[in-house]
Amino acid sequence: MTLWKRFSSNTGAMIGVIILLLVIAIALLAPVIFPKGPWQMVQRPFLAPFSTDGLPLGTDTLGRNVAAQLAYGARVSLLVGLVSTVVALLIGVPLGAVAGFYGSWVDEGAMRFTEFFQTIPNFALAIVLVAILEPTLTSITLAIAIVSWPPVARLVRAEVMSVRKREFVDAARVAGLTRRRILVAQVLPNTVSPIIVMASLMVATAILLESSLSFLGLGDPNAMSWGYMIGAARTVIRQHWWLSFLPGIAIVITVLALNLIGEGLNDALNPHLSRKARA
Amino acid sequence: MQIAIAIFSRLVKAALTLLAIAVLNFFLVHAAPGDPAVVLAGEAGAADEAMIEQLRERFGLDQPFHVQLGKYVWGIVQFDLGYSFRQGAPVSQLIAERLPATLLLTMTAFGISLACGIALGVAAAARVGKASDTMLTTLALLFYATPLYWLALMAVLVFSVWLGWLPGFGYETVGANYTGLTRLLDILKHLILPALTLGLFFMSVYMRMTRASMLEVSQLDFVKTARAKGLSGPAIRRRHILRNAILPVVTLAGLQAGQLVGGAVLTETVFAWPGIGRLMFESLAARDYNTILGVFIVSAAMVILFNIITDLVYRIVDPRIGATA
Question: What does UniProt give as GO cellular component (chain B) (predicted)?
Fold first, then answer.
């Protein structure tokens, strides 16, 4: 079976893809659907959902359009989730590859370094980094990347260690390829599929992390985000619970979709493993 | 003897890690935009010129970089985490006052999530493919995707505001002045919602892991042997599969401890739980960097403590693991 066939036969994964495509569409079209942006006051505050024409989800504590806020929040969540994952891969993949391929003291040093970052409570480190660097989209993305790369490094190291013992690597060595070329052109391409699976799950975790930071008031003050919405509505939860409820649902749905996709990819890319787990 | 050596080497490693975090803290203070003395003093206005001058002298900000670093790290070695100008007290004192609440919360959440996670994972694996397994896995997937703080808020809304079953705020009833057993029960009542909401996410992680691990081990040859000997299903699961399947779960639990401690910041913020996480949140708004960094280093120490605990648990579960591991 081809990869796509295996992936598309997984109902959960396909639901995930559809949800994610919807969220991406909303994020991209936000400026078209809501040209006024998420910050402008449009009506009285605290209008309930479905009560006013043109404001399907009502207004928040300052009379801003909740639907517009959610749409613009999707942009921030997806952007931070994606970019921070890419940055985390850029740190973790080379470090893990070098550690696993060269072994000995390189491995020892790289793994001590990784272990150190794994010991530090990652959310606390993210808070400290964003608080000290001042909350901007860049510092938030960077902080999330800095706390997310260690599992990547460990995974890539383990994969490289197992691949480098295979015969085709010996063949490449006999053919006279340099060690660096063997690592980059022969070994690394064979570790791509577990990295893809991990990356899709990392985007989900990054979205949760970003929303948690904004909830604590560490979001970019110029970017509307779901976590900020929940944090801002927290004080009025007794009277206007839907203001905290709706952005949370948006987060759950998006993160769930990404997790479903990650699981689907895992099953499709490692059919042997998934059969074992399902048996 | 072997265990003593193992514990000693763990403690040395822990001390080195903490030292490295202290160095990291130092660099973070210097990475902050602006004068480090002002950064340490907190928001402008919280400290006057004389105080900043005093700080500059104490941290030797006019001295070479490595001398500054040495002074800072030496201070931390002596449990001197600096002074919070915002709260008007040494940071170590502020943290010491609030640490018991955090330890109570995280330990309870850790215990609940590990116990329930393993139990549910075993149950799901035993009914693999059936409706109850699907339900459990779906629930775990859902909790895994739910932001901790939002789940906490919704729990307050439902169980405290709407149903009025449990208190959703604080550590004990303010002004009630309970003593003895009544006070203990009161604290326990306040503990339920924070501990459960903090534990649920990790419970789903441990459950998924236990389930996968149980299914993997149940394919191994020694399980077939046990079955061939005529042992009953539950006996095989409990005595043969679980014992082997639980090892990766315990490893994972140790690795996840950091996330648990970090998650406490969110839980404590929502429930106004008077622990160090709440202290960190309050310090964020006040830009009280000394306190933020102090909480950071103490929470790292807590993670190391959790790691040592899981290491000991590991030894109990699997006696084959000697001092070399």
Answer: plasma membrane
Tokens of B277: 């996480």
Percent share of chain B, pLDDT over 90: 8
Contacts of residue A240 in chain B, CB cutoff 8 Å? none
Give the closest of B129, B261, B289 to A132, CB-based: B289
Chain A nearest-CA distance from B270, in A, is 9
Task: Note the CATH number of domain A3-43+55-278.
Answer: 1.10.3720.10
CA distance to partner chain A, nearest, from residue B27 (Å): 11
User: What would the two tokens of residue A195 be?
Assistant: 């990295």
Confidence of residue A90 (pLDDT cuts 50, 70, 90): very high
CATH top class, domain B98-317: mainly alpha
Interface of A with B in 89-118 (CB under 8 A): 116, 118
* Contact B176/A at CB under 8 A: no
Across the interface, whether the CB atoms of B149 and A212 are under 8 A apart is answered: yes
Chain A residues close to B270, C-beta within 8 Å: 234
What are the sequence ranges of the domains in chain B? Answer: 1-78, 98-317
- Supply the pLDDT for residue A272: 60
Q: Does A244 touch chain B (CB under 8 A)?
A: yes
Residues of B in contact with A217 (CB under 8 A): 284-285
Is 0.90 topped by the overall pTM? no
Min Cα–Cα distance to chain A from B115, Å: 22
pLDDT of residue B272: 87
Q: What percent of chain A has pLDDT over 70?
A: 96
Tell me the pLDDT tens digit for each residue of B285-317.
777 788 888 888 888 888 888 888 777 777 777
**Scanning every residue of chain A, which has its alpha carbon at the shortest distance from the alpha carbon of B154?**
A245
For B150, the closest of A118, A248, A279 (CB atoms) is A248
Q: Check pLDDT > 50 for residue B323.
A: no
Give the distance from residue A251's alpha carbon to the nearest chain B alpha carbon, in angstroms.
7
What does the pLDDT read at residue B47? Answer: 60
- State the DSSP code for A65: B
- Tell whether A225 lies on the interface with B, counting CB pairs under 8 A: no
Judge: B292–A128 Cβ closer than 8 Å, yes or no: yes
B216 vs A: CB within 8 A: yes
How much is the pLDDT for B46?
Answer: 55
What is the pLDDT, as a whole number, of residue A88?
A: 96
CB pairs under 8 A between A and B: 142
- The pLDDT tens digits for B185-208 are 888 888 889 999 999 988 998 998
